[in-house]
Write a structure and sequence with these properties.
By secondary structure, the chain is mainly α. It has one domain. The protein has helices at residues 2-54, 82-95, 102-127, 139-173, 178-220, and strands spanning 69-70, 75-76, 225-229, 249-251, 279-282. It has a three-stranded antiparallel beta sheet with strand order 4-3-5. The protein has a two-stranded antiparallel sheet with strand order 1-2. Helix 2 (82-95) crosses helix 4 (139-173), helix 3 (102-127) packs across helix 4 and helix 4 packs antiparallel against helix 5.
């Protein structure tokens, strides 16, 4: 009888966590969908700027440069020439400056990240029965959001630089000219406006939402424990290992067994954050005095 009661309680908790995750996903996906066009516009501006600066440039040709070989094995150990890598590192800065795009992408992202953070904090208050609105105008919250967006936008634009550099290395070693390089750049930005925009929007909005949820629990001063909720569909990740802790309960100020204080913990490794769709729920609450 006790076993049956325990199984029933576990089933009820699982249903509650699933319901919370579904609400969480509906809310974040709506904000993601609104952010994506803004990111696509920003990437299109980048592409046009780069292609414009590319016109008339003298293109380095390292197609005759020496490659590195391991003659004892008779195999090539370096696909691109050292000359191409050096030339690309200089050339990319002639057509693209990552820091110059900080304001453009910040303007695109900050309003939606702020909205996701606030909506999650409000939802956390409602979940535990606290009236009033979650405050995102205080200095702490504003600094967190601005710092988060600044660092993430910086990473987005630096990654674009690396993608451009890799394509330039290959182009220089093949002796390609502006038409071929332009096609390579267009290919980068086709991905940027497609799957990369999807990944950025999901990571930023789900991340802001999870941080808002956790801060809502902290600000409430009544939440004692929290419960990790894995994704509840066929897209759930099995790696890294931290996505196998569904239902784990911990004290609010203590990390889960994966080392994260909450899903999308800013101190978590990239592999534990990018594309993560987990969230958390409030567990035990303080008893009224």
């Amino acid at each position: 009888m006790a076993a049956e009661l325990l199984a029933e309680e576990e089933a009820e908790l699982d249903a509650e966590l699933t319901a919370k995750w579904l609400v969480f996903m509906k809310r974040t996906e709506n904000t993601e969908d609104n952010l994506k066009p803004k990111l696509q516009i920003a990437f299109t501006k980048q592409e046009k700027s780069i292609l414009s600066k590319l016109k008339g440039k003298r293109i380095p040709d390292t197609s005759d440069a020496e490659r590195s070989y391991d003659f004892s094995l008779g195999v090539k150990i370096k696909e691109n020439s050292v000359e191409a890598e050096k030339a690309a590192d200089k050339f990319v800065d002639q057509i693209y400056t990552a820091s110059a795009w900080q304001d453009t992408f910040t303007a695109a992202m900050l309003p939606f990240v702020t909205l996701a953070y606030k909506e999650a904090g409000d939802a956390a208050f409602a979940e535990i029965g606290i009236g009033g609105a979650f405050n995102v105008t205080n200095p702490r919250a504003r600094k967190f959001l601005q710092d988060r967006v600044f660092e993430n936008v910086k990473g987005i634009n630096e990654e674009t630089r690396e993608k451009l550099k890799r394509q330039l290395i290959q182009a220089f070693d093949k002796g390609e000219g502006i038409p071929e390089i332009s096609k390579r750049i267009a290919g980068i930005f086709d991905i940027n406006r497609g799957s990369r925009t999807d990944k950025i929007a999901r990571t930023e909005i789900v991340g802001a939402s999870n941080n808002g949820t956790h801060q809502g629990y902290v600000d409430s001063e009544v939440v004692v424990t929290k419960i990790w909720i894995d994704s509840r569909d066929d897209k759930v990740r099995t790696t890294p290992h931290n996505h196998r802790i569904d239902g784990q309960e911990r004290a609010l100020d203590k990390p889960y067994s994966n080392g994260l204080l909450h899903p999308h913990d800013p101190n978590g490794a990239a592999g534990n954050v990018i594309n993560c769709r987990c969230t958390e729920a409030a567990g035990k609450l303080k008893e009224a005095a």
